[in-house]
Amino acid sequence: MTETLTIGKALNLGLRRAMEDDAKVVLMGEDIGRLGGVFRITDGLQKDFGEDRVVDTPLAEAGILGTAVGLAMRGYRPVCEIQFDGFVFPAYNQIVTQVAKIHARSRGKLPMPIVIRIPFGGGIGAVEHHSESPEAYFAHTPGLKVVAVSNPVDAYWGIQQAVAHPDPIVFLEPKRRYWEKAEVDTGATPGPLFASRVVRGGDDVTVLAYGPMVKTALQAAEAAAEEGRSVEVVDLRTISPLDLDPVFDSVRRTGRCVVVHEAPVTLGLGAEIAARVTETCFHSLEAPVLRVGGYDTPYPPSKLEEEYLPDLDRVLDAVDRAMEF
């Protein structure tokens, strides 16, 4: 069955299906029950599944994750919503010292099937602590998997796959893209969760992106085509583990690579990806791997965020610089 869904609605239906499939799935978060969440991702789920499975928690992120650890130890599959990206840091200790380590600490006896949903990135005109890109912190932590969806299809299937996975997953949702629409075949067989994907073919430059920047990269590729340049776009989809074989194949053909993300450039995911591409594809590269990202400043007030966020022009500038070599 094919439906036209927004990313937000796709997540809602994916969570509903996961809860129908497994009675051990429990949702937890601030205002996710009666309100349905700030972005209405959990709208209607408490009404249909009850307050014991869709739990309105206190405003205490460390408590949410600490409780999830105990539930996971008892065989449940908690799905924790962090209301905004900047609110995750009070829970950081629980995530990196407990969630990420208990499976290894117990020598495999205690799996941690916890999903931590985080709306991330800017572009919605929000106040401080509401537009962060914290993915590198979690990707750097062994024991965690990190996924960043960019479209309704991946949102619908990805959240179900994440809930069913035995390991803890930080599930990043591009909040400014929640209302983007696409056709979703809810009866299809999904592809693997931890796999990157070429979303636009090209021959001159490879542009890598994830989450909210995938749309920006695609827009830049369309603009470049008008100037006679053929840009291939790869949606990384998974940040940890990175699936770079499709990236290497692409770069060996194009000889040029640009990595785009909203997070600050310094020590961001682009640095790791650039290093891996350079190590593996050194003899194929015609230019250094270039990075486009946020500036090394705290996220600015909303009236300045358009100057901060990578946009079509900044991506095209990097493509131009890569082509000059």
From TrEMBL:
Species: Geodermatophilus dictyosporus
Keyword annotations of the record: Oxidoreductase, Pyruvate, Thiamine pyrophosphate
Entry cofactors: thiamine diphosphate
Residues of the Transketolase-like pyrimidine-binding domain: 5-180
Protein name: Pyruvate dehydrogenase E1 component beta subunit
GO molecular-function term, one example from the UniProt record: oxidoreductase activity
Protein origin, superkingdom: Bacteria
Gene3D superfamilies xrefs: 3.40.50.920, 3.40.50.970
Keyword Iron-sulfur among record annotations: no
Database matches in InterPro entries: THDP-binding, Transketo_C/PFOR_II, Transketolase-like_Pyr-bd, Transketolase_C
